[in-house]
Write a structure and sequence with these properties.
- The protein is an alpha+beta fold.
- 23% of the residues lie in helices and 37% in strands.
- The chain contains seven helices and 21 strands.
- The strands form four sheets. Strands 10, 13, 15, 16, 17, 19 and 20 form a seven-stranded mixed β-sheet that branches.
- Helix 5 links the parallel strand 6 (161-165) and strand 7.
């Protein structure tokens, strides 16, 4: 990697909204109309920049500006090289044509001649692992197959700059690993990468630098490892007020029981703020009951920092609980062995007896740290099975 900048973005502004009706009239732009505000960064040739941010932060807008899909309102962008944007998987494809014909179309769009296209076709076909599907119309493909084809074309066209929007979540685990390995190879060969993601761990693994966006503003620009930490910190802060359940309005259910607080405990039921991997802990759900109910079930859904549900803790048929009218209490869910490793998990709680009585989404966040891994990386692939037991105590 050299110090020569291949991408330069200076004082970039982009707004959305209606233009003034009379062009000679000055239009005062409302603050919420700016999708991006004064964004600046550079990426050296062979470098990699991960762009993080929650929904609506401006990530996709920035990617479209870099791809030339839409122009900026203020500021400048310099892209010194052949750009391949993977903003939408089907961009540039014809669903009626075969995968093979689409490879030729995308190669032509990228400026390859006939011989160059025919040379990469075996490479793309081998990478995508589509077999005979390569000769069938794309409309017959599953979304994962379309993603394989698009990503296979992108990484074999030898573009100078790749603009990638979450495509590494496409396909099965083995293809994701293969794609990740290919990405490392491209970076080692001098390809420049702009990678937009909600996954800070993936950004940290792939990218050398990170840009964190919030409401169109760049709130951090620097090393990817630190950008990942800042993103997790920002996400946790935005969810921290949700841990105060008394003021939650965004909840569903008939309301005979309401969860009023959530806390974590050790085995002696002493409150803790963080749990440790491979050890036991307890989730406590404080509640208020306005009516007597018998044999009600409780579900606790655990989601990772990508908002993917990875585990469900559920009362069994012989653990259904009962509550008395006009009482308060606490429902304990004991985790016998904690397989979670990561810096940000969120809980969704549902109480029901055939119909939902109370349900609140993403209401509590916590960390589960591995004493042998201070980085707090997520260590599983797929869903997690967590053994648990339940009990209730009325006050």
């Amino acid at each position: 990697m050299t110090d020569e900048p291949i991408i330069e973005v200076k004082n970039l502004w982009k707004r959305y909204g209606l233009p003034p009706f009379l062009p000679w009239k000055k239009h005062q732009v409302a603050d919420h109309e700016w999708a991006l505000r004064d964004i600046s960064f550079t990426v050296p040739r062979g470098g990699s920049l991960g762009i993080l941010g929650r929904n609506g932060a401006g990530k996709s807008t920035l990617l479209k500006l870099l791809a030339g899909v839409t122009p900026p309102d203020k500021g400048g962008i310099a892209m010194r090289g052949k750009v391949f944007p993977m903003i939408e998987l089907t961009a540039g494809m014809s669903m009626e044509l075969s995968g093979l014909e689409n490879i030729r179309i995308l190669g032509t769009i990228m400026g390859l001649n006939g011989k160059e296209i025919e040379k990469i076709i075996p490479e793309v076909g081998d990478f995508c692992e589509l077999g005979d599907w390569l000769y069938k119309p794309v409309w017959q493909y599953s979304s994962g197959m379309v993603g394989r084809l698009a990503f296979g074309v992108a990484v074999n066209l030898k573009a100078d700059i790749l603009l990638v929007d979450e495509v590494l979540s496409t396909g099965d685990i083995m293809f994701q690993r293969k794609s990740l390995k290919k990405m490392y190879s491209l970076l080692a060969g001098g390809t420049t990468l702009i990678f937009v993601s909600h996954n800070p761990n993936m950004v940290e693994r792939i990218c050398s630098d990170g840009l964190l966006l919030q409401n169109g503003n760049a709130i951090f620009y620097g090393e990817a490892t630190q950008a990942s930490k800042e993103y997790i910190k920002m996400t946790r802060k935005s969810l921290s007020t949700a841990n105060q359940l008394h003021d939650i309005n965004d909840r569903t259910g008939s309301g005979e029981i309401r969860i009023t607080n959530i806390a974590l405990y050790d085995n002696d039921k002493i409150p803790i703020t963080c749990v440790k991997a491979y050890e036991s802990f307890i989730i406590g759900l404080e509640y208020r009951a306005s009516d007597s109910l018998d044999k009600i079930g409780v579900d606790i859904l655990i989601s990772d920092q990508n908002n993917k549900v990875i585990a469900v803790l559920r009362t069994s048929n012989n653990e259904l609980i009962s509550v008395t009218k006009n009482t308060t209490g606490i429902i304990f869910c004991s985790i016998l062995f904690n397989p979670l490793r990561g810096d940000l998990f969120s809980l969704t709680v549902k109480i029901s007896d055939g119909v939902i009585i109370d349900m609140v989404n993403d209401i509590f966040t916590f960390s589960s740290l591995d004493p042998h891994d201070s980085a707090g990386k997520v260590s599983w692939m797929g869903d997690v099975v967590i053994e648990n037991t339940w009990q209730v105590k009325e006050y």
